[in-house]
Please model this.
Amino acid sequence: MDRKELIQKYLEFFKSKKHAIIPSASLIPENDPSVLFTTAGMHPLVPFLMGQKHPLGKRLASVQKCIRTSDIDEVGDAFHHTFFEMLGNWSLGDYFKKEAIEVSFEFLTKFLKIKKEMLAVSVFAGDKTAEKDDDAAGAWLALGIPGDKIAYLPKKNNWWELAGQTGPCGPDTEMFYFVGKGKPNKESNPGTKENEWCEIWNDVFMQYQKIEGGKFVPLQQKNIDTGMGVERTIAILNGINDDYLTDTFLPIIKKIETISGKKYKESTKSMRIIADHLKAATFILGDEKHIAPSNVEQGYVLRKLIRRAIRHGKEIGIEKNFAKEIAKSVIGIYSSDYPELKKNEGFIFEEIEKEENKFKETLEKGLRKFEEMAKSKKISGTEAFLLYQSFGFPLEITEELAKEKNVEFVKKSDFESEFKKHQEISKVGSEKKFKGGLGEVTEETTRLHTATHLLNEALRKVVNKDIKQRGSNITPERLRFDFNYDKKLTDEQLKKVEAEVNSAIKKAMPVERMEMTVSEAVKQGAQAMFTEKYTGEVSVYKIGNYSVEICAGPHVANTKELGKFKIIKEEAVAAGIRRIKAVLE
Ligand code: ATP
Ligand code: MG
Model:
Protein backbone atom coordinates (compact mmCIF):
# COMPACT_ATOMS: atom_id res chain seq x y z
CA MET A 1 0.00 0.00 0.00
CA ASP A 2 1.27 3.47 -0.75
CA ARG A 3 0.77 6.82 0.92
CA LYS A 4 -2.10 7.96 -1.27
CA GLU A 5 -3.98 4.72 -0.83
CA LEU A 6 -3.67 4.84 2.96
CA ILE A 7 -4.95 8.40 3.12
CA GLN A 8 -7.82 7.61 0.80
CA LYS A 9 -8.75 4.46 2.75
CA TYR A 10 -8.70 6.34 6.05
CA LEU A 11 -10.86 9.22 4.86
CA GLU A 12 -13.31 6.91 3.09
CA PHE A 13 -13.59 4.72 6.16
CA PHE A 14 -14.44 7.67 8.38
CA LYS A 15 -16.79 9.11 5.80
CA SER A 16 -18.67 5.81 5.93
CA LYS A 17 -18.86 6.35 9.70
CA LYS A 18 -20.55 9.72 9.13
CA HIS A 19 -17.50 11.94 9.58
CA ALA A 20 -17.18 15.14 7.55
CA ILE A 21 -13.78 15.44 5.86
CA ILE A 22 -12.05 18.74 6.58
CA PRO A 23 -9.08 20.11 4.61
CA SER A 24 -5.50 20.36 5.87
CA ALA A 25 -4.92 23.75 7.49
CA SER A 26 -1.83 25.93 7.01
CA LEU A 27 1.40 24.87 8.76
CA ILE A 28 1.51 28.31 10.34
CA PRO A 29 -1.20 28.61 13.00
CA GLU A 30 -3.59 31.52 12.83
CA ASN A 31 -3.94 33.62 15.95
CA ASP A 32 -1.96 31.30 18.17
CA PRO A 33 1.23 32.84 19.45
CA SER A 34 1.97 29.84 21.69
CA VAL A 35 3.28 27.67 18.87
CA LEU A 36 5.19 28.34 15.68
CA PHE A 37 3.79 25.46 13.67
CA THR A 38 0.74 23.22 13.44
CA THR A 39 1.85 20.14 15.39
CA ALA A 40 -1.20 17.90 15.10
CA GLY A 41 -4.53 17.56 13.37
CA MET A 42 -6.30 18.78 16.50
CA HIS A 43 -4.53 22.11 16.47
CA PRO A 44 -6.79 23.94 13.99
CA LEU A 45 -9.80 22.43 15.81
CA VAL A 46 -9.11 23.86 19.25
CA PRO A 47 -12.10 26.26 19.38
CA PHE A 48 -14.39 23.31 18.60
CA LEU A 49 -12.80 21.03 21.18
CA MET A 50 -13.44 23.87 23.65
CA GLY A 51 -17.16 23.73 22.89
CA GLN A 52 -17.81 25.99 19.91
CA LYS A 53 -20.18 24.36 17.43
CA HIS A 54 -18.44 23.11 14.29
CA PRO A 55 -20.42 23.97 11.14
CA LEU A 56 -19.85 20.47 9.73
CA GLY A 57 -21.15 18.64 12.76
CA LYS A 58 -19.85 16.49 15.57
CA ARG A 59 -17.77 13.99 13.58
CA LEU A 60 -14.74 15.14 11.62
CA ALA A 61 -11.72 13.56 9.94
CA SER A 62 -8.68 14.94 8.11
CA VAL A 63 -5.15 14.50 6.92
CA GLN A 64 -3.08 17.38 8.32
CA LYS A 65 0.45 18.50 7.43
CA CYS A 66 2.40 18.88 10.67
CA ILE A 67 5.78 20.20 11.81
CA ARG A 68 7.27 19.24 15.17
CA THR A 69 10.37 21.20 16.06
CA SER A 70 10.40 19.30 19.35
CA ASP A 71 11.31 16.13 17.47
CA ILE A 72 14.28 17.55 15.54
CA ASP A 73 16.75 15.81 17.86
CA GLU A 74 15.13 12.45 17.14
CA VAL A 75 15.47 12.85 13.39
CA GLY A 76 17.93 10.29 12.15
CA ASP A 77 16.02 7.32 13.59
CA ALA A 78 13.60 5.37 11.40
CA PHE A 79 10.31 6.87 12.61
CA HIS A 80 10.63 10.52 13.71
CA HIS A 81 10.36 13.40 11.28
CA THR A 82 10.19 17.15 11.49
CA PHE A 83 7.47 17.18 8.85
CA PHE A 84 4.88 14.43 8.73
CA GLU A 85 1.26 13.91 7.79
CA MET A 86 -1.24 13.04 10.47
CA LEU A 87 -4.54 11.29 9.87
CA GLY A 88 -7.14 12.08 12.49
CA ASN A 89 -10.76 11.59 13.47
CA TRP A 90 -12.72 13.61 16.01
CA SER A 91 -15.88 13.27 18.01
CA LEU A 92 -17.07 16.60 19.41
CA GLY A 93 -19.31 15.45 22.23
CA ASP A 94 -20.59 12.54 20.16
CA TYR A 95 -19.21 8.96 20.43
CA PHE A 96 -16.68 8.31 23.17
CA LYS A 97 -14.09 5.84 24.43
CA LYS A 98 -15.46 2.40 23.66
CA GLU A 99 -16.64 3.32 20.18
CA ALA A 100 -13.46 5.19 19.36
CA ILE A 101 -11.35 2.16 20.27
CA GLU A 102 -13.65 -0.19 18.33
CA VAL A 103 -13.47 2.00 15.26
CA SER A 104 -9.65 2.25 15.45
CA PHE A 105 -9.42 -1.52 15.81
CA GLU A 106 -11.79 -2.10 12.90
CA PHE A 107 -9.75 0.16 10.64
CA LEU A 108 -6.42 -1.44 11.62
CA THR A 109 -7.49 -5.07 11.39
CA LYS A 110 -10.28 -5.09 8.76
CA PHE A 111 -9.26 -2.30 6.39
CA LEU A 112 -5.49 -2.34 6.74
CA LYS A 113 -5.57 -6.10 7.45
CA ILE A 114 -3.01 -5.84 10.22
CA LYS A 115 -2.74 -9.08 12.20
CA LYS A 116 -3.94 -8.74 15.78
CA GLU A 117 -0.85 -10.65 16.94
CA MET A 118 1.39 -7.81 15.76
CA LEU A 119 -0.43 -5.14 17.78
CA ALA A 120 -0.07 -3.93 21.35
CA VAL A 121 -1.55 -0.96 23.18
CA SER A 122 -0.89 1.28 26.16
CA VAL A 123 -3.46 2.79 28.51
CA PHE A 124 -3.26 5.22 31.42
CA ALA A 125 -2.13 3.54 34.67
CA GLY A 126 -3.88 6.02 37.00
CA ASP A 127 -2.39 8.18 39.77
CA LYS A 128 -3.41 10.38 42.68
CA THR A 129 -5.24 12.85 40.46
CA ALA A 130 -7.07 10.65 37.96
CA GLU A 131 -8.13 7.03 37.92
CA LYS A 132 -6.70 4.09 36.00
CA ASP A 133 -8.29 3.76 32.58
CA ASP A 134 -10.06 0.43 33.06
CA ASP A 135 -12.63 1.40 30.44
CA ALA A 136 -10.00 1.63 27.73
CA ALA A 137 -8.30 -1.61 28.81
CA GLY A 138 -11.70 -3.32 28.95
CA ALA A 139 -12.53 -2.22 25.42
CA TRP A 140 -9.23 -3.66 24.11
CA LEU A 141 -9.70 -6.95 25.99
CA ALA A 142 -13.20 -7.29 24.55
CA LEU A 143 -11.75 -6.93 21.05
CA GLY A 144 -9.29 -9.75 21.69
CA ILE A 145 -6.09 -7.87 22.58
CA PRO A 146 -4.57 -10.11 25.28
CA GLY A 147 -3.79 -8.69 28.74
CA ASP A 148 -0.04 -9.09 28.25
CA LYS A 149 -0.21 -6.75 25.24
CA ILE A 150 -1.76 -3.94 27.26
CA ALA A 151 0.84 -1.73 28.94
CA TYR A 152 -0.30 0.49 31.82
CA LEU A 153 1.79 3.63 31.68
CA PRO A 154 1.96 6.88 33.68
CA LYS A 155 0.97 10.43 32.73
CA LYS A 156 4.27 10.97 30.95
CA ASN A 157 3.16 8.51 28.26
CA ASN A 158 -0.60 8.29 28.34
CA TRP A 159 -2.06 11.64 29.22
CA TRP A 160 -2.88 14.71 27.20
CA GLU A 161 -3.14 18.19 28.64
CA LEU A 162 -1.94 21.71 28.08
CA ALA A 163 1.06 22.67 30.18
CA GLY A 164 0.23 25.10 32.92
CA GLN A 165 -3.19 25.82 31.55
CA THR A 166 -6.69 25.05 32.54
CA GLY A 167 -8.82 23.32 29.95
CA PRO A 168 -9.85 19.94 28.58
CA CYS A 169 -7.53 17.01 29.20
CA GLY A 170 -7.60 13.28 29.72
CA PRO A 171 -5.99 9.88 29.28
CA ASP A 172 -5.16 8.34 25.93
CA THR A 173 -4.53 4.91 24.47
CA GLU A 174 -1.72 4.37 22.00
CA MET A 175 -1.54 1.63 19.39
CA PHE A 176 1.79 0.03 18.52
CA TYR A 177 3.06 -2.32 15.84
CA PHE A 178 5.77 -4.91 16.48
CA VAL A 179 9.07 -3.90 14.86
CA GLY A 180 11.35 -6.37 16.69
CA LYS A 181 12.81 -9.56 15.27
CA GLY A 182 10.45 -12.44 14.39
CA LYS A 183 7.21 -12.51 16.39
CA PRO A 184 6.51 -10.70 19.67
CA ASN A 185 7.27 -12.70 22.82
CA LYS A 186 4.62 -13.15 25.45
CA GLU A 187 6.22 -10.70 27.86
CA SER A 188 6.95 -8.02 25.24
CA ASN A 189 4.78 -4.91 25.16
CA PRO A 190 5.39 -1.13 24.84
CA GLY A 191 5.94 -0.95 28.62
CA THR A 192 8.41 -3.84 28.97
CA LYS A 193 10.25 -3.71 25.62
CA GLU A 194 9.73 -0.24 24.25
CA ASN A 195 12.19 -0.65 21.38
CA GLU A 196 10.30 -3.54 19.85
CA TRP A 197 7.22 -1.39 19.29
CA CYS A 198 6.48 1.54 17.03
CA GLU A 199 3.59 3.83 17.94
CA ILE A 200 1.29 4.35 14.99
CA TRP A 201 -1.93 5.77 16.42
CA ASN A 202 -3.12 7.61 19.49
CA ASP A 203 -6.71 8.01 20.69
CA VAL A 204 -7.09 10.83 23.21
CA PHE A 205 -10.10 10.88 25.53
CA MET A 206 -10.84 14.42 26.59
CA GLN A 207 -12.98 13.66 29.59
CA TYR A 208 -11.74 16.01 32.31
CA GLN A 209 -11.54 19.73 32.79
CA LYS A 210 -8.42 20.95 34.53
CA ILE A 211 -9.43 23.73 36.91
CA GLU A 212 -7.46 26.29 38.93
CA GLY A 213 -5.18 24.54 41.40
CA GLY A 214 -4.55 21.60 39.07
CA LYS A 215 -7.69 19.63 40.02
CA PHE A 216 -9.66 17.61 37.48
CA VAL A 217 -13.43 17.61 37.18
CA PRO A 218 -15.55 15.77 34.58
CA LEU A 219 -15.86 17.67 31.30
CA GLN A 220 -19.26 18.74 29.96
CA GLN A 221 -18.58 17.95 26.32
CA LYS A 222 -16.45 14.80 26.10
CA ASN A 223 -14.33 14.65 22.95
CA ILE A 224 -12.29 12.13 21.00
CA ASP A 225 -9.12 13.33 19.29
CA THR A 226 -6.99 10.84 17.38
CA GLY A 227 -3.79 11.00 15.38
CA MET A 228 -2.17 8.41 13.14
CA GLY A 229 1.18 8.97 11.40
CA VAL A 230 1.07 8.33 7.66
CA GLU A 231 4.81 7.60 7.20
CA ARG A 232 5.05 5.06 10.02
CA THR A 233 1.86 3.27 9.10
CA ILE A 234 2.93 2.92 5.46
CA ALA A 235 6.28 1.52 6.57
CA ILE A 236 4.85 -1.15 8.85
CA LEU A 237 2.17 -2.10 6.33
CA ASN A 238 4.95 -2.84 3.87
CA GLY A 239 7.02 -4.66 6.48
CA ILE A 240 9.89 -2.20 6.06
CA ASN A 241 10.52 -0.72 9.53
CA ASP A 242 12.11 2.35 7.99
CA ASP A 243 9.97 5.30 6.87
CA TYR A 244 12.73 6.46 4.53
CA LEU A 245 12.31 3.39 2.35
CA THR A 246 8.61 4.05 1.71
CA ASP A 247 7.16 6.19 -1.06
CA THR A 248 7.00 9.13 1.37
CA PHE A 249 10.82 9.43 1.24
CA LEU A 250 12.36 6.98 -1.23
CA PRO A 251 12.50 9.31 -4.27
CA ILE A 252 14.32 11.86 -2.09
CA ILE A 253 16.79 9.30 -0.77
CA LYS A 254 17.48 8.08 -4.31
CA LYS A 255 18.14 11.64 -5.42
CA ILE A 256 20.60 12.12 -2.55
CA GLU A 257 22.34 8.87 -3.53
CA THR A 258 22.70 10.06 -7.11
CA ILE A 259 23.96 13.51 -6.16
CA SER A 260 26.44 12.26 -3.56
CA GLY A 261 27.49 9.02 -5.22
CA LYS A 262 27.14 7.40 -1.78
CA LYS A 263 24.79 4.62 -0.66
CA TYR A 264 21.94 5.09 1.82
CA LYS A 265 23.14 1.98 3.65
CA GLU A 266 26.49 3.60 4.40
CA SER A 267 25.38 7.18 5.03
CA THR A 268 22.02 6.48 6.62
CA LYS A 269 21.93 9.15 9.31
CA SER A 270 23.12 12.06 7.18
CA MET A 271 20.81 11.09 4.33
CA ARG A 272 17.84 10.85 6.68
CA ILE A 273 18.59 14.29 8.12
CA ILE A 274 19.00 15.82 4.67
CA ALA A 275 15.78 14.26 3.36
CA ASP A 276 13.80 15.15 6.48
CA HIS A 277 15.04 18.71 6.90
CA LEU A 278 14.74 19.72 3.27
CA LYS A 279 11.27 18.19 3.05
CA ALA A 280 10.20 20.27 6.06
CA ALA A 281 11.91 23.34 4.58
CA THR A 282 10.10 22.85 1.27
CA PHE A 283 6.74 22.68 3.05
CA ILE A 284 7.43 25.77 5.17
CA LEU A 285 8.54 27.77 2.11
CA GLY A 286 5.62 26.38 0.13
CA ASP A 287 3.01 27.43 2.67
CA GLU A 288 0.85 30.34 1.58
CA LYS A 289 2.22 32.45 4.41
CA HIS A 290 5.45 32.98 2.47
CA ILE A 291 7.89 32.40 5.31
CA ALA A 292 11.51 32.95 4.22
CA PRO A 293 14.73 32.12 6.13
CA SER A 294 15.47 34.76 8.80
CA ASN A 295 16.67 35.07 12.38
CA VAL A 296 13.23 35.09 13.96
CA GLU A 297 10.43 32.65 14.66
CA GLN A 298 9.42 30.31 11.82
CA GLY A 299 12.05 31.89 9.59
CA TYR A 300 14.78 30.85 12.00
CA VAL A 301 13.54 27.27 12.23
CA LEU A 302 13.58 27.22 8.45
CA ARG A 303 17.12 28.59 8.37
CA LYS A 304 18.32 25.96 10.87
CA LEU A 305 16.72 23.14 8.88
CA ILE A 306 18.34 24.21 5.62
CA ARG A 307 21.75 24.86 7.20
CA ARG A 308 21.86 21.55 9.03
CA ALA A 309 20.95 19.73 5.81
CA ILE A 310 23.71 21.59 3.95
CA ARG A 311 26.23 20.67 6.65
CA HIS A 312 25.28 16.99 6.32
CA GLY A 313 25.49 17.29 2.54
CA LYS A 314 29.09 18.39 2.92
CA GLU A 315 29.64 15.54 5.37
CA ILE A 316 28.73 12.98 2.70
CA GLY A 317 30.86 14.68 0.08
CA ILE A 318 28.39 16.80 -1.87
CA GLU A 319 30.21 19.78 -3.38
CA LYS A 320 27.70 21.54 -5.59
CA ASN A 321 24.37 23.06 -4.62
CA PHE A 322 21.75 20.38 -4.08
CA ALA A 323 18.92 21.78 -1.92
CA LYS A 324 16.85 22.89 -4.89
CA GLU A 325 17.09 19.42 -6.46
CA ILE A 326 15.81 17.87 -3.24
CA ALA A 327 12.98 20.41 -3.07
CA LYS A 328 12.00 19.36 -6.59
CA SER A 329 11.65 15.77 -5.57
CA VAL A 330 9.61 16.74 -2.48
CA ILE A 331 7.26 18.73 -4.70
CA GLY A 332 7.07 15.73 -7.02
CA ILE A 333 5.79 13.50 -4.21
CA TYR A 334 3.30 15.92 -2.69
CA SER A 335 2.10 18.57 -5.11
CA SER A 336 -1.02 16.71 -6.23
CA ASP A 337 -2.28 16.81 -2.63
CA TYR A 338 -0.78 20.18 -1.68
CA PRO A 339 -1.12 22.41 -4.76
CA GLU A 340 0.44 25.30 -2.84
CA LEU A 341 3.83 23.62 -3.39
CA LYS A 342 3.52 23.89 -7.14
CA LYS A 343 2.06 27.36 -6.93
CA ASN A 344 4.92 28.63 -4.79
CA GLU A 345 7.61 26.63 -6.56
CA GLY A 346 9.46 29.73 -7.74
CA PHE A 347 9.62 31.13 -4.21
CA ILE A 348 10.76 27.77 -2.78
CA PHE A 349 13.59 27.37 -5.30
CA GLU A 350 14.78 30.94 -5.00
CA GLU A 351 14.83 31.07 -1.21
CA ILE A 352 16.35 27.63 -0.67
CA GLU A 353 19.12 28.38 -3.17
CA LYS A 354 19.76 31.80 -1.63
CA GLU A 355 20.10 30.28 1.83
CA GLU A 356 22.37 27.53 0.57
CA ASN A 357 24.66 30.04 -1.14
CA LYS A 358 24.73 32.24 1.93
CA PHE A 359 25.66 29.42 4.28
CA LYS A 360 28.25 27.95 1.94
CA GLU A 361 30.13 31.24 2.03
CA THR A 362 30.94 30.69 5.70
CA LEU A 363 30.54 26.95 6.28
CA GLU A 364 34.07 25.96 5.31
CA LYS A 365 35.69 28.70 7.38
CA GLY A 366 33.37 28.02 10.29
CA LEU A 367 34.29 24.32 10.28
CA ARG A 368 37.97 25.23 10.33
CA LYS A 369 37.35 27.60 13.22
CA PHE A 370 35.53 24.84 15.07
CA GLU A 371 38.45 22.43 14.55
CA GLU A 372 40.77 25.04 15.99
CA MET A 373 38.56 25.60 19.02
CA ALA A 374 38.11 21.85 19.49
CA LYS A 375 41.83 21.22 19.90
CA SER A 376 41.38 21.81 23.62
CA LYS A 377 38.74 19.03 23.60
CA LYS A 378 36.34 21.62 24.99
CA ILE A 379 34.02 24.12 23.44
CA SER A 380 32.23 26.86 25.38
CA GLY A 381 28.96 28.72 24.99
CA THR A 382 30.90 31.87 24.16
CA GLU A 383 32.79 30.09 21.37
CA ALA A 384 29.54 28.64 20.07
CA PHE A 385 28.18 32.16 19.95
CA LEU A 386 31.16 33.30 17.95
CA LEU A 387 30.49 30.49 15.47
CA TYR A 388 26.91 31.69 15.26
CA GLN A 389 27.74 35.33 14.86
CA SER A 390 30.64 35.10 12.45
CA PHE A 391 29.83 31.97 10.49
CA GLY A 392 26.06 31.56 10.85
CA PHE A 393 26.26 28.26 12.76
CA PRO A 394 23.01 27.67 14.66
CA LEU A 395 23.74 26.33 18.16
CA GLU A 396 22.40 22.94 17.09
CA ILE A 397 25.09 22.51 14.45
CA THR A 398 27.87 23.27 16.93
CA GLU A 399 26.32 20.89 19.44
CA GLU A 400 26.13 18.18 16.83
CA LEU A 401 29.74 18.73 15.74
CA ALA A 402 30.87 18.57 19.36
CA LYS A 403 29.06 15.28 19.86
CA GLU A 404 30.49 13.79 16.68
CA LYS A 405 34.04 14.81 17.54
CA ASN A 406 33.77 13.87 21.22
CA VAL A 407 34.33 17.42 22.33
CA GLU A 408 32.88 18.48 25.66
CA PHE A 409 30.44 21.40 25.61
CA VAL A 410 30.99 23.65 28.63
CA LYS A 411 28.99 26.64 29.83
CA LYS A 412 26.39 26.23 27.13
CA SER A 413 24.25 28.80 28.93
CA ASP A 414 26.78 31.47 27.90
CA PHE A 415 25.48 31.09 24.37
CA GLU A 416 22.05 32.20 25.53
CA SER A 417 23.35 35.14 27.51
CA GLU A 418 25.48 36.35 24.62
CA PHE A 419 22.46 35.96 22.43
CA LYS A 420 20.33 37.94 24.82
CA LYS A 421 22.90 40.70 24.82
CA HIS A 422 22.40 40.92 21.11
CA GLN A 423 18.71 41.36 21.70
CA GLU A 424 17.61 38.41 19.70
CA ILE A 425 16.32 36.35 22.56
CA SER A 426 12.70 37.37 22.46
CA LYS A 427 12.53 36.29 18.86
CA VAL A 428 14.21 32.93 19.08
CA GLY A 429 12.77 32.28 22.51
CA SER A 430 9.32 32.02 21.04
CA GLU A 431 10.35 28.75 19.46
CA LYS A 432 10.71 27.23 22.87
CA LYS A 433 7.22 28.17 23.87
CA PHE A 434 4.84 25.44 24.80
CA LYS A 435 4.81 23.03 21.97
CA GLY A 436 1.42 21.41 21.89
CA GLY A 437 -0.92 24.14 22.50
CA LEU A 438 -3.70 26.52 22.51
CA GLY A 439 -3.44 30.18 21.93
CA GLU A 440 -4.30 32.10 24.98
CA VAL A 441 -7.86 33.29 24.88
CA THR A 442 -8.06 36.23 27.26
CA GLU A 443 -9.99 39.48 27.31
CA GLU A 444 -6.97 41.21 25.78
CA THR A 445 -6.53 38.74 22.93
CA THR A 446 -10.27 38.82 22.22
CA ARG A 447 -10.25 42.61 21.94
CA LEU A 448 -7.18 42.53 19.71
CA HIS A 449 -8.84 39.91 17.56
CA THR A 450 -11.77 42.24 16.86
CA ALA A 451 -9.36 45.14 16.31
CA THR A 452 -7.63 43.01 13.67
CA HIS A 453 -10.87 42.81 11.67
CA LEU A 454 -11.24 46.59 11.83
CA LEU A 455 -7.64 47.12 10.75
CA ASN A 456 -8.09 44.71 7.85
CA GLU A 457 -11.05 46.74 6.59
CA ALA A 458 -9.44 50.12 7.31
CA LEU A 459 -6.41 49.26 5.19
CA ARG A 460 -8.66 48.55 2.23
CA LYS A 461 -10.60 51.75 2.76
CA VAL A 462 -7.62 54.03 3.31
CA VAL A 463 -4.68 52.48 1.46
CA ASN A 464 -5.73 50.12 -1.31
CA LYS A 465 -8.88 48.17 -2.08
CA ASP A 466 -6.88 45.08 -3.13
CA ILE A 467 -5.23 44.57 0.24
CA LYS A 468 -5.82 41.14 1.71
CA GLN A 469 -4.78 39.48 4.95
CA ARG A 470 -1.70 37.29 4.62
CA GLY A 471 -1.23 36.35 8.25
CA SER A 472 -2.13 37.29 11.79
CA ASN A 473 -0.67 36.66 15.20
CA ILE A 474 -2.06 37.90 18.48
CA THR A 475 -0.52 37.96 21.95
CA PRO A 476 -2.11 39.57 25.02
CA GLU A 477 0.12 42.61 24.37
CA ARG A 478 -0.33 43.33 20.68
CA LEU A 479 -1.75 42.32 17.34
CA ARG A 480 0.36 41.61 14.29
CA PHE A 481 -1.17 41.74 10.86
CA ASP A 482 0.47 40.82 7.54
CA PHE A 483 -0.97 41.94 4.22
CA ASN A 484 -0.03 42.24 0.59
CA TYR A 485 1.25 45.64 -0.44
CA ASP A 486 4.44 46.50 -2.25
CA LYS A 487 5.40 49.85 -0.75
CA LYS A 488 6.22 51.13 2.68
CA LEU A 489 3.22 52.89 4.16
CA THR A 490 3.82 56.61 4.67
CA ASP A 491 3.40 58.21 8.08
CA GLU A 492 0.37 59.96 6.73
CA GLN A 493 -1.21 56.68 5.57
CA LEU A 494 -0.53 55.10 8.97
CA LYS A 495 -2.16 58.06 10.73
CA LYS A 496 -5.19 57.77 8.49
CA VAL A 497 -5.50 54.02 9.11
CA GLU A 498 -5.26 54.59 12.85
CA ALA A 499 -7.92 57.30 12.72
CA GLU A 500 -10.16 55.11 10.58
CA VAL A 501 -9.98 52.22 13.08
CA ASN A 502 -10.60 54.56 16.03
CA SER A 503 -13.61 56.10 14.35
CA ALA A 504 -14.98 52.58 13.71
CA ILE A 505 -14.46 51.76 17.40
CA LYS A 506 -16.32 54.93 18.43
CA LYS A 507 -19.33 53.98 16.34
CA ALA A 508 -20.04 51.30 18.99
CA MET A 509 -20.95 48.71 16.40
CA PRO A 510 -22.31 45.30 17.43
CA VAL A 511 -20.25 42.22 16.55
CA GLU A 512 -22.42 39.36 15.32
CA ARG A 513 -21.56 35.73 14.67
CA MET A 514 -23.42 33.84 11.93
CA GLU A 515 -23.16 30.52 10.19
CA MET A 516 -23.58 30.23 6.44
CA THR A 517 -22.21 28.46 3.42
CA VAL A 518 -18.99 29.75 1.90
CA SER A 519 -20.75 30.96 -1.23
CA GLU A 520 -23.28 32.86 0.89
CA ALA A 521 -20.42 34.42 2.86
CA VAL A 522 -18.64 35.41 -0.32
CA LYS A 523 -21.88 36.90 -1.63
CA GLN A 524 -22.01 39.06 1.49
CA GLY A 525 -18.49 40.23 0.70
CA ALA A 526 -16.79 38.31 3.48
CA GLN A 527 -13.02 38.49 3.73
CA ALA A 528 -11.32 35.12 4.04
CA MET A 529 -7.74 34.05 4.51
CA PHE A 530 -6.84 32.70 1.11
CA THR A 531 -4.63 30.10 2.78
CA GLU A 532 -7.58 28.17 4.09
CA LYS A 533 -9.81 25.93 2.09
CA TYR A 534 -13.33 26.01 3.33
CA THR A 535 -16.03 23.43 2.95
CA GLY A 536 -19.68 23.45 4.00
CA GLU A 537 -20.92 26.00 6.52
CA VAL A 538 -18.51 28.44 8.05
CA SER A 539 -18.55 30.83 10.95
CA VAL A 540 -18.75 34.48 9.86
CA TYR A 541 -18.27 37.57 12.00
CA LYS A 542 -19.99 40.79 11.04
CA ILE A 543 -19.10 44.13 12.64
CA GLY A 544 -22.02 46.52 12.06
CA ASN A 545 -22.06 47.29 8.36
CA TYR A 546 -18.31 47.79 8.46
CA SER A 547 -16.66 44.39 8.14
CA VAL A 548 -17.56 40.80 7.29
CA GLU A 549 -15.01 37.99 7.71
CA ILE A 550 -14.96 34.23 7.75
CA CYS A 551 -13.40 33.57 11.14
CA ALA A 552 -13.64 31.16 14.08
CA GLY A 553 -13.48 33.96 16.67
CA PRO A 554 -13.51 34.81 19.52
CA HIS A 555 -14.65 38.45 19.44
CA VAL A 556 -16.05 41.12 21.73
CA ALA A 557 -19.78 41.91 21.57
CA ASN A 558 -19.39 45.58 20.67
CA THR A 559 -16.53 47.67 19.24
CA LYS A 560 -16.87 50.16 22.08
CA GLU A 561 -15.07 47.61 24.29
CA LEU A 562 -11.84 48.11 22.37
CA GLY A 563 -10.51 51.43 23.70
CA LYS A 564 -7.91 53.31 21.68
CA PHE A 565 -6.12 51.70 18.72
CA LYS A 566 -2.50 52.56 18.10
CA ILE A 567 -0.05 51.40 15.42
CA ILE A 568 3.42 50.82 16.85
CA LYS A 569 5.29 49.50 13.83
CA GLU A 570 5.10 49.02 10.10
CA GLU A 571 7.69 46.95 8.28
CA ALA A 572 8.38 44.56 5.39
CA VAL A 573 8.34 40.80 6.01
CA ALA A 574 8.85 39.45 2.52
CA ALA A 575 8.69 40.73 -1.02
CA GLY A 576 5.28 42.34 -1.44
CA ILE A 577 4.21 41.69 2.14
CA ARG A 578 3.99 44.32 4.87
CA ARG A 579 3.42 43.89 8.57
CA ILE A 580 1.70 46.14 11.08
CA LYS A 581 1.97 45.77 14.82
CA ALA A 582 -0.61 47.58 16.89
CA VAL A 583 -1.91 47.81 20.44
CA LEU A 584 -5.10 48.84 22.25
CA GLU A 585 -4.62 51.42 24.95
P1 ATP B 1 6.34 9.28 19.74
O1 ATP B 1 6.23 8.93 21.20
O2 ATP B 1 6.66 8.13 18.86
O3 ATP B 1 7.21 10.48 19.50
P2 ATP B 1 3.98 10.86 20.08
O4 ATP B 1 3.41 10.27 21.32
O5 ATP B 1 4.75 12.10 20.18
O6 ATP B 1 4.87 9.75 19.31
P3 ATP B 1 1.39 11.74 19.16
O7 ATP B 1 1.61 13.12 19.62
O8 ATP B 1 0.45 10.88 19.89
O9 ATP B 1 2.81 11.01 19.00
O10 ATP B 1 0.99 11.81 17.60
C1 ATP B 1 0.10 10.90 16.99
C2 ATP B 1 0.76 10.07 15.92
O11 ATP B 1 1.51 10.87 15.02
C3 ATP B 1 1.78 9.06 16.46
O12 ATP B 1 1.12 7.88 16.85
C4 ATP B 1 2.68 8.85 15.27
O13 ATP B 1 2.13 7.88 14.38
C5 ATP B 1 2.67 10.18 14.58
N1 ATP B 1 3.86 10.98 14.92
C6 ATP B 1 4.08 11.73 16.03
N2 ATP B 1 5.26 12.36 16.00
C7 ATP B 1 5.82 12.01 14.81
C8 ATP B 1 7.04 12.37 14.17
N3 ATP B 1 7.91 13.20 14.72
N4 ATP B 1 7.29 11.83 12.95
C9 ATP B 1 6.41 10.99 12.36
N5 ATP B 1 5.24 10.63 12.91
C10 ATP B 1 4.94 11.13 14.12
MG1 MG C 1 6.70 12.51 20.16
Residues 71 surround magnesium ion (ligand 2) (CB under 6 Å). The domain at 442-584 is CATH 3.30.980.10 (Threonyl-tRNA Synthetase; Chain A, domain 2). Residues 424-439 have pLDDT under 50 and may be disordered. The chain has three domains: 3-243, 249-422, 442-584.
